[in-house]
What we know:
This protein is an alpha+beta fold. It is about 35% helix and about 25% strand. The longest helix has 20 residues.
Amino acid sequence: MHYITASFVLDVMIHDIDIVLSLAGGRIKKVDAVGVNVIEDNEDICSARLLFDNGCIANITASRIALKTERKVRVFSRQAYLSVDYFKKTGTVIKADPNTDVVQKVRELKKAGKFNLLKAGWSDMLHIEKLKIDDREPLRLEQEAFLQAVADRSAKPEVSAEEGLAAMQCAEMILASIKKHKWE
């Protein structure tokens, strides 16, 4: 019996695409992606780089054959670093202490020959905050919200039709880039 497999990008990566699009807040300018089919007829591993018109860059990697299952999002900006682990349901935000110019302090320590990356005293310069993550399953919540929106026509779904379409269009751009960069 032969099973028809769905695109991994459309099956799994689509959720990450939706998250990235909501965080980036811009329009996609360019997509570079590579994918490899190892087991299935379609890609089993995919890595995509999305460039947005507002300067945001997103790297998304997904694999159905990874040795270790991970679901993480990391966001870097000048203001903060955010890390969320969907499996462990944990998250951390790290921000520079508003009273400390971290870059200037590091430069001064380096100039004085007193900077050791491993013993830099980051806790004095950074504000580390653990995030409170809802313990409920995100996909289940999304489906329940959708069903509620259907039942109660006045309720707005978690993911609008426009957002869903944008994620699908992005996925199609990723698949086109994979096809363009196909490994033989």
